[in-house]
Amino acid sequence: MNHWLTAPVLIPLIGAFLQVFMGYAPLSLRRTLGLATTGLLLVSTVFLLMMADDGSYRAYAFGNWAPPFGIVLVLDRLAALMLFITALLALFCHLFSLGRTDVSSRQFHALFLFQLMGLNMAFLTGDLFNLFVAFEVLLIASYGLLLHGEGTARTVPGLHYVVLNLAGSALFLISVGMIYSVTGTLNMADLARIIPTLNSGDLPLVEAGGMILLVVFALKAALLPLTFWLPKAYASATAPVAALFAVMTKVGVYAIIRVYTLIFGENAGALANLGMDWVFPLALLTMVVGVIGMMGSSGLRTMVAWQVVVSVGTILAAFSLVSEAGLSSALFYTVHTTWVAAGLFLVVDLIAAQRGSAGDKIVTAPRMRNRTFISVMFMLGAVSAAGLPPLSGFFAKLLIMSAAVPGLQMAALWAVILLAGFLSLVAYSRAGSIVFWRNVDGHIGQPERLNFPHTVGAGALIAMSIAIVFAAGPLSDYTDATAEQLRDTSAYIGILDTPMVGEDES
Amino acid sequence: MELAFALIIGSLTFAGVYLVLRARTFPVVVGLTLLSYGVNLFLFSTGRLMSGAQPIIGSTDTYSDPLPQALVLTAIVIGFAMTAFVVVLSLRTRADTGDDHVDGTSETERTQDQSTTDLPREETGQ
After folding, report:
1. What is the per-residue pLDDT across A428-455, written as a single tens digit (0 to 9) for each?
2. Nearest CA of chain A to the CA of B104: how many Å?
3. Which residue would you say has higher pLDDT here, A187 or B57?
4. Is the separation of the CB atoms in A375 and A429 below 8 Å?
5. CB count in 10 Å sphere of residue A246
6. What tens digit of pLDDT does each residue of A260-276 get?
7. Which secondary structure element, helix H or strand E, spans residue A440, and what is its range?
8. Please, which residues 25-64 of chain B have a Cβ atom closer than 8 Å to chain A?
């Protein structure tokens, strides 16, 4: 039992409750409190990251009910890494929201913190049904955040997003029911213990349940046939929300990595590596479709939204190589792409604010203010996202490509990754040269001035790409260790033997 | 009992999926509700169907599994909140776009819009 595990769930929960009751408090007080909550969350996740780095599993059982009967939170390297990525991203998004996004509605800070609570619960939980509850918490907060803001442009994409995710929740419950009806448990460790021992008569039901579960996670992650909701929803959201949503697809990716290494991983007997032969080609196709979407975008926001699709394809392609090196490189790429894509969303919002009525559309317009500073940030983000040296995207893609085993798989992976990188570079160069260089005469009516929180929020996320380059050694050591830990499922099953409080005395 | 139960779940899901695929928001909302009824019944049946069995060990000879009942309760509460939200959202869409089509405009109107102007409806409507 380790009580620190509840911190990433409790801190945003308490912060959000305070915000709910403080709807009419002065804005400066709400902002200070909101930022303090996110800051405290970052501190707690750094603490958990250092704690998880010793490679052991820590569990927290709610109400002192021993697993598999109670619900447990489990901390390992993967969960700690995802918590840290989210908390750092959230701090800069929260900073960016000050001044413009949080003015239009009283409940922005509360929704933002509830979203973080749902995300953290999804990363920490060791129970399949609790994962469903965490998904619902983060989804209902995300519905509010997506519709947040002035104007009517968001209601239709918002409706599509909500209906799609409600259908996804129904599928999630169906798959959970199918798995429970055979195994009689929903604790992930217990499932990993039971599934290799199932007799052949029960296998088809669990297999079908596992595949439906993959569909649900693929919908959250926006894998190919289920990808088309994403660009419209992300492009219509306000910038800090879109940037925070960069981690929402990664929740789907996290759930795929967790469930399909632990429960349906290599030790799952007859169901070993369930669905991975589907994920690999679909991930490659996702990259292709994503990059076509980038080439065809008429606005910068839509282009970055398609970039999120491309990155999901890249992560899942690396994961479905089913090797330790592939898993490690997928995690390294996740760290890079979450921060860089979010940073690009924020930079695009800065661009749109400086261009008057042209906004984020890729058209010629009068010369914008602060062109040098913003264009350098856009260039750094684009170079990193396209995967050119010397920024983090290059190293991440290099790791993925070197993880492929020679053969047909390698040929397909290399061809698609290199082609996607090249075409996204073309898309970024075209957009950048039109937006920054081709100016027409005229002037922009009252462009907004750059202010401190916006500049720091966007700049810091882009600068993370450079920071990853300098920390590449320790980071890849960490992801290697994470991959090794994930492959050893017997250690995760060991949390079933976690002593409860008071048991050792009796 | 199993056959009747399975047929009920099947017809609820069938009607739900059919209605979700409709083009107006009201049938979609009703479809989502029916789908969640079907799913809740399905979840309930995963603990095996039996009558006269309490979910308490020792009270009778046979006992039923309490966990699916707890899961269904959670799913009902969440589903209820989500339905309330989607109802409000579809009313808002109806108010914002002046149409209850799921895309904001119906097919015929959209072709008319495109022939007169290239701007999307959100901007022309203001």
Report:
1. 999 999 888 888 877 776 667 778 888 8
2. 6
3. A187
4. no
5. 28
6. 998 888 888 888 888 88
7. strand A439-440
8. 25, 28, 32, 35-36, 39-40, 42-43, 45-47
Q: How confident is the model over A231-250, as a mean pLDDT?
A: 89
For residue B30, give how far its alpha carbon lies from the nearest alpha carbon of chain A (Å). 11
SS3 A107: coil
Beta carbons of B20 and A167 less than 8 Å apart: yes
Which of A161, A155, A122 shows the shortest CA–CA distance to A138? A122
In 3D space, the residue among A232, A225, A365, A388 whose CA is nearest the CA of residue A302 turns out to be: A232
Q: Do B89 and A147 touch (CB under 8 A)?
A: yes
| Coil/strand/helix, residue A72 | strand
Question: Which residues from chain A sit within 8 angstroms of residue B68, using beta carbons?
Answer: 177, 180
Contact B82 A177 (CB under 8 A): no
Asked whether the beta carbons of residue A160 and residue B102 sit closer than 8 angstroms, the reply is yes
Stated pTM of the model: 0.91
Confidence tier at B121 by pLDDT (50, 70, 90):
very low
**What ipTM goes with this model?**
0.85
- Least confident residue range of A70-84, A106-120, B51-65: B51-65
Six-digit token pair at A70?
């109670």
Q: Which residues of B touch A176 (CB under 8 A)?
A: 43, 71
Longest dimension (CA), chain A: 83
Q: Where are the alpha helices (DSSP H) in A98-227?
A: 108-124, 128-147, 155-183, 188-194, 203-221
Q: Between A369 and A319, whose confidence is greater?
A: A319
What does the pLDDT read at residue B119? 46
DSSP string across A399-410: HHHHHSPTTHHH
Cis omega (within 30 of 0) on the bond before A68? yes
Residue B73 forms contact with A (CB below 8 Å): no
Query: Which one of B5, B17, B39 makes the best mutation probe of the A interface by having the most chain A beta carbons within 10 Å?
Result: B39
pLDDT at A150: 65
**A-interface mutation test, from B67, B100, B101, B121, most A Cβ less than 10 A away:** B67
Cis bond upstream, residue A12 (ω within 30): no
pLDDT band at A331 (very low <50, low <70, confident <90, very high): very high
A173 vs B contacts (CB less than 8 Å): 39-40, 42-43, 75
Using the predicted structure, report yes or no on whether residue B106 has a pLDDT greater than 70: no
Q: Residues 6 or more apart from A55 whose CB is under 8 A from it?
A: A77, A481, A485
- Are residues B85 and A140, on separate chains, in Cβ contact within 8 Å? yes
| Cβ within 8 Å, pair B42-A177 | yes
Q: At A382, list the tokens.
A: 């684009």
**CB–CB of A155 and B68 under 8 A?**
no
What percentage of chain A reaches a pLDDT higher than 70? Answer: 98
Three-state DSSP class for A37?
Answer: helix
Q: How big is the A-B interface in CB pairs under 8 Å?
A: 87
With CB atoms and an 8 Å threshold, state whether A162 touches B35: no
For residue B47, the model assigns a pLDDT of 81
Closest CA to A469 of A380, A364, A395: A395
